[in-house]
Write a structure and sequence with these properties.
Number of strands: 37
CATH class of the largest domain: Alpha Beta
Distance between the termini: 49 Å
Helix content: 10-25%
Shape: elongated
Strand order of the largest sheet: 16-15-17-18-24-23-22-20
Structural class: alpha/beta
Largest sheet: 8 strands, mixed
Length: 693
């Protein structure tokens, strides 16, 4: 075996302290002999040295070494910002040139890393180039790393984390694919709330960033709300600008902002921004007016009071004008009915007004009845629960409120047992669809009977429940901008008492009240979509007609048709896999909807101008170099020692570490015992002979 390296090692026969002590003693004796110039002194010193060396037991070690190649990492950025302009072509050319140059350098192992941020999570995280490099080096010892060469536009978003870590790969060289001095207009959302109160405004702060714009200039920005026609705004450039946005309904409100193109543009995707604001109601204000005490009055109160989101104001008219019992006024403890405050000054503050078995008694003047009718037409909500008096001459139908009610009395009252049923239309309406105990496929309901129903005529709107002989029992209607529900019976309380098993009175009243107050989940003709990770869940409800395919248009403008699966009459759903974040538009030709998926304003596209500022601290800290491909092309590569500069003008250095693996070892005693004995005796005999001369 021809050794690659030879070394000498020691295996002392005595502990090292003893060997050292003997060596010191031998040195002193030899020095004394030599100082006295005794005959044979040098041979005596040689004998002592041989004795000490024999005790140290030297060995010759010959190693067979296998050199190990140094590792160079080539990190190629193929994220979304790298698709701009000439960057893809420059990237490919640089990769090919590096492959050729690295192939000519012996002793190198090339690790290729491709950085991509495709998918929903990747766009939000941005370009994680340093994380990909560290992952590639997880099994590579630091003393084998020759260097890292990154081909990127410089928009890397994990540099700070890399600098803060204990292990920074280097030398870190950078080849920039963009053009020096690039400029791009972009729209930045500075602050935006996640929630907003319904019927109030939220403040969105945005900024149009444009390095090429003149100081004091303004940019046109279009603002769209829930897909409606965009409103133009004038926004000062390079300044934060606050915009007040109204929240008009509960649930998600989608806000779109789009800035006009600037004088210098790299990409238009970052000129747009999307915000999703969830509209919530502060508290629902409900006014319940009971005409007279009756068995079902507490049912309404208990159900409404059990909802923590409802502020209930309840009045029962216990002492109407015609009641004369001789009780002195000073002895009455009843609260005066604040008619003017409720029905004139504060009427618009209520989200829902409920009349429970109310009849005309001279308490509410006709003017206030007209106010309630106008309140409904202007967007208010009214629920009328009719008792026998609705069929009499004291009926609310004979007031201005009758103009907005969906049913008029015939004068007849049915007083016999019947089980309320869900109509065919009610099976499609979210207020009554799927109520527990309704019976399947037109079967007999399992809930208890009612014993009173008011006959009605001139019914308009949607009859979702029927009573005796299929007569209308619960009617829902839209009047102007408002909504009205009409329950033609006062026996709902039988369900709450559990008569004949009871029924879903709480769920029915909750759904009815929330439909009246425009709860998005209870819209009867609606197209909605929900983002669940990388899936888009489509939900379509309709009262009439068949379900049509839904056209789904992605953020890039490409669309596809999706067939819905009917899970109930008039109710279809579908699930779509998506792989791109942004705003999706859905339409079935009748209804449209918007849904935000993933990162609405991805970090990757927030700034696409090529820059050396992000990676320069890392490159300098590791002794690496940085070069623009458009100006200087691919630099020369050379091997450098670990203590030398790793970059210069027109070249990048790769460290030569000289790492190896020992594949064989041969150990030979440098002073075998027999040889040591012969040499020692020879030295002593020669010294004795010299003394005798």
């Amino acid at each position: 075996m021809i050794p690659d390296a030879v070394t000498v090692t020691f295996g002392p026969l005595l502990p090292w302290p003893a060997v050292v002590a003997l060596g010191v003693l031998a040195a002193l004796i030899a020095a004394l002999v030599l100082v006295r110039r005794a005959r044979g002194g040098w041979w005596r010193a040689a004998a002592l040295a041989l004795l000490v060396l024999a005790l140290a037991n030297p060995s010759i070690v010959a190693e067979r070494r296998d050199p190990r190649a140094d590792v160079v990492v080539v990190a190629v950025d193929r994220t979304a910002s790298q698709e701009i302009g000439e960057r893809p072509a420059r990237t490919e050319a640089a990769v090919a040139a590096l492959d050729e140059k690295l192939a000519r350098i012996p002793g190198l192992q090339v690790e290729r890393v491709v950085v991509s941020n495709q998918g929903l999570a990747g766009a939000e995280e941005g370009t994680r180039l340093l994380a990909a490099v560290r992952e590639a080096l997880v099994d590579v010892p630091e003393h084998r790393l020759a260097g890292v060469i990154a081909i990127t536009d410089g928009q890397v978003h994990d540099v700070e984390a890399a600098l803060a870590s204990d292990r920074v790969p280097g030398p870190f060289h950078v080849l920039l694919t963009g053009d020096r001095g690039e400029q791009d207009r972009r729209l930045r959302i500075v602050r935006a709330p996640s929630f907003g109160m319904v019927d109030k405004t939220v403040t969105v702060t945005l900024e149009v960033v444009d390095p090429a714009a003149a100081p004091g200039s303004a940019a046109a920005v279009l603002m769209g709300i829930d897909g409606a026609e965009a409103v133009p705004l004038s926004v000062p450039v390079n300044q934060e600008h606050a915009v007040e946005v109204p929240i008009e309904h509960g649930g998600q409100t989608i806000l779109e902002f789009a800035a006009e193109p600037g004088s210098r543009e790299l990409a238009l995707d970052n000129n747009r921004a999307v915000i999703a604001v969830n509209g919530v109601r502060d508290r629902l204000r409900v006014l319940l007016v009971s005409g007279e005490p009756h068995a079902g009055e507490r049912t309404w109160r208990d159900i409404l009071k059990s909802d923590p989101s409802v502020d209930l104001v309840h009045f029962t008219i216990l002492r109407p004008p015609e009641k004369q019992d001789g009780t002195p006024i000073r002895e009455l403890s009843l609260i005066a009915f604040p008619i003017r405050e409720l029905f004139e000054l504060k009427l618009a503050d209520f989200d829902l007004i409920i009349f429970d078995r109310y009849r005309r008694r001279g308490v509410l003047p006709r003017m206030y009845m007209q106010n309630i009718a106008e309140y409904v037409r202007n967007g208010g909500a009214l629920l009328e629960a009719s008792g026998p008096t609705f069929a009499s001459r004291l009926s609310l139908a004979r007031t201005p409120i009758g103009e907005v009610l969906p049913a008029q009395p015939t004068g007849g009252v049915i007083e016999q047992g019947f089980r309320p049923r869900i109509t065919e239309l009610g099976g499609r309406h979210p207020v009554t669809a799927g109520l527990a105990g309704a019976g399947e496929d037109g079967g007999e309901p399992t809930w208890g009977r009612w014993f009173r129903q008011i006959e009605a005529r001139d019914v308009r709107g949607n009859v979702v429940m029927s009573g005796d002989a299929s007569r209308p029992l619960l009617v829902l209607d839209r009047v102007g901008d408002g909504r009205v529900a009409h329950l033609l019976s006062d026996h709902l309380w039988l369900w709450s008492r559990g008569y004949e098993g009871g029924g879903p009175q709480a769920e029915l009243l909750r759904r009815t009240a929330h439909w009246l107050m425009r709860e998005p989940d209870l819209e009867e003709n609606d197209l909605r979509a929900f983002a669940r990770g990388d899936q888009l869940e489509i939900d379509r409800r309709m009262l009439e007609g068949s379900l049509a395919p839904v056209r789904v248009t992605g953020p890039d403008g490409t669309g596809r048709d999706v067939e819905l699966a009917e899970i109930a009459p008039g109710h279809g759903t579908a699930t779509v896999q998506v792989d791109r974040p942004g705003l999706y538009r859905l339409s079935d030709g009748v209804r449209t909807a918007l849904v935000a998926v993933g990162a609405l304003n991805p970090v990757e596209l927030s700034d696409v101008a090529a820059t050396e500022a992000r990676l320069q601290p890392l490159s300098q800290a590791t002794g690496g170099g940085m070069q623009w491909l458009a100006e200087d092309g691919v630099p020369a590569l050379r091997r450098v020692a670990g203590d030398r500069a790793a970059a210069g003008r027109g070249w990048f250095g790769l460290r030569a570490n000289g790492d190896y693996v020992v594949t064989g070892v041969l150990t030979v005693p440098a002073l075998p015992a027999a040889l040591a004995l012969v040499l020692l005796l020879g030295a002593l005999m020669t010294a004795w002979r010299r003394e005798g001369d």
